[in-house]
Every structure is written in structure tokens, then in C-alpha cells.
Design a protein that fits this description.
Distance between the termini: 62 Å
Number of helices: 26
Strand content: 5-15%
Radius of gyration: 27 Å
Structural class: mainly alpha
Number of strands: 7
Helix content: 55-70%
Shape: globular
Strand order of the largest sheet: 4-3-5-7-6
Number of domains: 3
Length: 585
């Protein structure tokens, strides 16, 4: 397929095709994995079951960690019958939406080729599918923030509809806020502000240079040509009453949910959602606390296999390749990267809104080389080869799994029972499929390394790297994920306990709420948490039928409680968990 002159319909078909291959298979090969996915889906389930769409609940209690938009959408999919996949359906559609918006940004700011490559890079940069396959809030946040940035870019271009575009940008920022809090406003605000300020500097610098050349500043108002006109429009579209109207609309939309929710949720809920959540993520007590350099160290891995191309793109920008698309992408990436770096709490998923910026920058540099607008930078061929070598090493690793499955079992499972289960899961079909996938990906990487220089080679390199990434991703989803699911899902524990959880008058959680995981799989809205053994003894007294979920470490002690016996045991993640009951079905 030639990227030059690609039609809009073909580009959209390719983006959707790649996106479906990336995100759909895992829907059929695993459950929601502990703890984040089941918790988010359980909040949506409780919303759907209770009909309370104002204040999210978890385990029957108000849940103040996040605003409600993700849960609203997830509850809709629950009503439609998607069950455990309800949260992941939100993420799937949001991820596809983000890729389409990235295409629209690249197409609007430069060309269909730029938009297509940007979308393909976004879909296959490892962080994007890794988080996009999970039923968590970040893919929806990334979709809203990317769409808000698109509207801001359209507003910067001016025209009669500039005000409408600004209002749309603020509405989407409000939806991002209602998905994950203030970060939903910060990301598009920082990206748009950085882009607008850089555009003003470009206009001022070009005008000054033109003034010196002509010798008469009165004769030159802005750079000549269509590109200069557009950059000039962007430089003069920063202010205006539309921002006041947009800000007022944003506040009104957020307040329309927040004020009634705080009134209904009470003082503790209000304090937690307004102050505690944000303060924890910025302060010293933040969960997932990491050093300042965490993202700088790990982001190159998050963006593989495109990290070498992104390095080339940044080098091209800093050497003067600063048209509108490149300026937006670089400003977006750097401003938001610095913003997230300043937070004490850091997780890989927080960087998801940066992946579209990386895709746009890679796409713009690629098209510049493809069209001859820029000469390939020094090291261009070498870094492209490095991308294929990195993927090739992963493909070799897959081949090693097929040849020596015992080593894999020993490497990832120390517990003899777990090791035995891993060995049993590595069937002949799984090993053959793994070997075929490794060979196919390695062949693609080898072919990519040998592609010729020039425009034809550039196009093939992009498509080959996408294809190799898809092959490896499908191998993981179809072959490795079902095995991992045995140890990451809480469903097996609930199924092993069978009627003891299904028919109990009450299910008690001992010393932990387990983040709503077992509420979801057992379809129980309320499971009381008991922390003291004496309190548990009182809770399990007959005649009520009571089941207890507890950590394996305390199971022996609890089994000595009169009338309580162990009925199921499973390993979920790093925890051994048991179910005890005070009756027999």
C-alpha cells in the first residue's frame, strides 16, 4: 500500500482495521485483571444495578476516587449485556476514537499521509494498546483530551466558526474533567497554550526577519503564503471573549454534576473528591510515588517500537522543522511531559495522553522525509534498523518459549503448584502458535532491515514495523494472555467456591476490601469488611449462612473458628486467597 495520496476512506479503513486487531482479541481471552479493572467495572455495575447515577459506589459505599463519566458509559454497556467486558468496551471505543482524532489532526494540519502514520504509530506504540486493552479510565481521558486539543487547533486557525471550536474544546475538557478530575483540563490547556505561544513567537520572528529584509515594517504584517497565514491566524487566536464563555461553560458542566453529588454524598465525600484525591497525587504521601526522573527513564520503553523514530523527529524539529503540525506535537509532548513529571505519584498509564503527540510528531517527520521536504537526518537508517532489531529480539524470545517451555515455567513461577499449572497450560498448540508468531515477526523485522533507502523504502518500513508489532501483539493476546489470566483474574476463586458465595446469606471480606474484585465476580453489591477475629466469630454464628474471603496466610487460624471450614483456595496475582463457610449446601 502506498501512503502517498492515500484516500480518506482507505486511511480510515486501515486505522479501524489495525485498531480492531489490536484491541478486540483480548476481550475473548481474559477477564478484568486485579485490582483496577474489576474495581472500575464493579462501580459501573453497582451504578447500573442501583440506578444511582449521581454518586458512584463501590461495595455499597460512596466511591470518591473519580468522577462518573467512565462509570456512566460502563453502566450503559452493562445494561446492554457486555458483562465483565463493560469497562473494556469503553476503553476500546475510546482508543479507536483517539486514533481517529489523531488522524484528523494530522490531516487538518498537514496531509492525510501525516494523519495516517500518526494514527498507526499511536495504535502500536506499546503504552497505547497496553492501557487501551484495560477497563480503566485513562483511555477515555486520552480520547477527550485529544479531541479537545483538536478543537483548540481548529479554533487557532480562525474563521467564522472559531468561537464554536473554542466552546467545543471547553466542553470536551469538561468531559475529561468528569472522567478523571483536574488533569482532564490541564492536559489540553497546557498543550494548546504551549502551541499558541510558540506560534506567536514564530510569527514575531518571521515578521522581524522580513522587516529587516524589506526595510519597512509597515509593509509586512505576517509571513507570506498559506502556511504563514495559518500560523499567523494561530498566533492571533489566543484571546477573546470566547475563552470566558468557554470557561463558564466548563465550570457549569462540572458543577451540574459536582454540586448535587457533594450534597448527596455528604461532607466526607465532598472533602475527599475536592481536595484529598488531588493533594495525594501531588504531595509526598502520593501512592505510586516515584523519583523525578521516572518518566524520563521509562518513557522510551513505553513508546517502543517507535522510540528511535521519535528521537529523529525531535532532532528534526530542533533543527528547524517547525511547521504547524510539528510545532503542535512537540509543544504538546514537552509541556504535558513536564507537567506529569512534577507529580509525586507516577504510573506508566498517566502518560497515555502523550502518545498521540508522539504519533503526530513521528508522522510529520516521516512525511517530510517521504516528500523530500527534509533530508534524512544523520543516523536515520541506523535508528530505523534499531527499531527492527528490538522487535526481532522479542520475536526471538517467543521462539525460545516454544523451544524451551520448562525454562519459562521456572522463570515466571516459583511456587511448585503454579509452575505445574503453567506447564500444563503450555500445550503443543500454544507452543506451535508461539513459534510461528516468533518466526513471522522475525522475518518481517529482517525484511525491514534490508529495505532500500528512499521514499518507497520509507513507506514499507512504516507498514512492516506496524505488521511486526501486530503479529507480536496477537501472539500475546491469543497465546500468552489466557495463561496469565489464570493468575490475574479473581473469577476462578468465585467459581471454585460455587454455591458457598452464590447462596450465602452474607459474604464477609476479612481484613481487606480487595478493591471490589470479588463483588464483581460474585455479583454482590455489599460485602462487609471485618478486621478483628472476634468480630468475625460473631459474624459467622448460625443460623445465617456466611462465607468468608480471606488471605491464605490467615486461613489456618480462621479454620479453627467453630463451624467455619475452608471450601476453596486459589492464587490471584501474588496473593493466595481462600473461601471459608459455616454451612454445607
Amino acid at each position: 500500500m502506498a501512503l502517498a495520496g492515500v484516500s480518506n476512506r482507505s486511511a480510515l479503513a486501515l486505522i479501524l482495521g489495525v485498531g480492531l486487531l489490536v484491541f478486540v482479541p483480548s476481550l475473548f481471552t481474559r477477564d478484568p485483571w486485579n485490582p483496577d479493572e474489576p474495581r472500575a467495572t464493579e462501580v459501573a455495575r453497582e451504578m447500573a444495578e442501583s440506578g444511582n447515577y449521581l454518586v458512584p459506589h463501590l461495595n455499597g459505599e460512596p466511591y470518591s476516587d473519580k468522577p462518573p463519566v467512565f462509570y456512566w458509559l460502563g453502566s450503559g454497556f452493562w445494561h446492554l449485556g457486555f458483562g465483565l467486558n463493560s469497562g473494556r468496551m469503553v476503553s476500546l471505543l475510546a482508543s479507536l476514537g483517539t486514533a481517529l482524532v489523531v488522524y484528523a489532526i494530522g490531516r487538518r494540519m498537514h496531509s492525510s499521509e501525516t494523519g495516517l502514520v500518526a494514527a498507526l504509530v499511536t495504535l502500536t506504540a506499546q503504552l497505547f494498546p497496553f492501557i487501551g486493552k484495560q477497563g480503566v479510565l485513562d483511555p477515555l481521558l486520552a480520547c477527550f483530551t485529544t479531541a479537545s486539543i483538536y478543537c483548540a487547533v481548529a479554533a487557532f486557525e480562525g474563521g467564522e466558526r472559531r468561537g464554536r471550536w473554542w466552546l467545543a474544546a471547553y466542553v470536551l475538557a469538561a468531559l475529561a474533567f468528569l472522567t478523571k478530575g483536574p488533569v482532564g483540563v490541564a492536559v489540553p490547556l497546557l498543550a494548546a497554550a504551549a502551541y499558541g505561544l510558540l506560534c506567536r513567537r514564530v510569527v514575531a520572528r518571521r515578521s522581524a526577519a522580513e522587516d529587516l529584509r524589506v526595510g519597512d515594517a509597515d509593509h509586512v504584517a505576517r509571513p507570506s503564503g498559506a502556511e504563514g497565514s495559518r500560523v499567523g491566524d494561530a498566533g492571533h487566536s489566543m484571546g477573546g471573549w470566547w475563552h470566558l464563555a468557554g470557561a463558564a461553560l466548563l465550570v457549569a458542566l462540572v458543577a451540574a454534576w459536582l454540586v448535587p453529588a457533594c450534597i448527596h454524598g455528604g461532607k466526607e465525600y465532598t472533602n475527599d473528591i475536592l481536595f484529598q484525591q488531588t493533594a495525594q497525587r501531588m504531595g509526598e504521601e502520593a501512592s505510586h510515588r516515584q523519583p523525578l526522573y521516572f518518566y524520563l527513564l521509562w518513557s522510551p520503553l513505553f513508546l517502543l517500537p517507535w522510540t528511535p523514530l521519535l528521537a529523529l523527529a525531535f532532532a528534526w524539529v530542533f533543527r528547524g522543522g517547525r511547521d504547524r503540525a510539528a510545532t503542535l506535537a512537540a509543544a504538546w509532548f514537552i509541556a504535558v511531559f513536564v507537567f506529569f513529571t512534577l507529580f509525586s505519584g507516577k504510573r506508566e498509564r498517566y502518560l497515555l495522553p502523550l502518545v498521540p503527540a508522539a504519533g503526530l510528531l513521528c508522522g510529520r517527520y516521516f512525511v517530510a522525509v517521504l516528500r523530500g521536504e527534509a533530508s534524512p537526518l544523520r543516523g536515520h537508517q541506523g535508528l530505523w534498523k534499531a527499531s527492527f532489531v528490538l522487535l526481532g529480539l522479542i520475536a526471538i524470545g517467543l521462539g525460545a518459549v516454544a523451544l524451551e517451555p520448562g525454562a519459562v515455567a521456572r522463570r515466571f513461577a516459583k511456587d511448585p503448584e503454579v509452575m505445574a499449572e503453567v506447564r500444563a497450560a503450555l500445550t503443543a498448540g500454544t507452543l506451535i502458535g508461539t513459534g510461528i508468531a516468533g518466526i513471522a515477526a522475525l522475518a518481517l523485522c529482517f525484511w525491514g532491515i534490508r529495505l532500500p533507502r528512499g521514499a518507497a523504502g520509507e513507506t514499507r518500513r512504516v507498514l512492516t514495523l506496524v505488521a511486526a508489532t501486530l503479529v507480536l501483539g496477537l501472539a500475546v493476546d491469543l497465546l500468552a494472555t489466557p495463561i496469565i489470566n489464570r493468575f490475574k483474574s479473581g473469577r476462578d476463586l468465585v467459581e471454585a467456591a460455587g454455591p458457598y458465595l452464590r447462596d450465602a446469606d452474607e459474604v464477609v471480606l476479612y481484613q481487606s476490601d480487595y478493591s471490589g474484585v470479588y463483588n464483581l465476580f460474585a455479583r454482590r453489591t455489599r460485602m462487609p469488611v471485618v478486621y478483628e477475629e472476634e468480630e468475625l466469630r460473631q459474624a459467622v454464628k448460625p443460623p445465617r449462612r456466611v462465607a468468608v474471603i480471606a488471605k491464605e496466610a490467615v486461613a489456618d487460624g480462621l479454620a479453627r473458628t467453630p463451624g467455619l471450614r475452608q471450601v476453596a483456595r486459589e492464587r490471584v496475582g501474588h496473593r493466595g486467597l481462600v473461601v471459608l463457610a459455616n454451612w454445607r449446601p
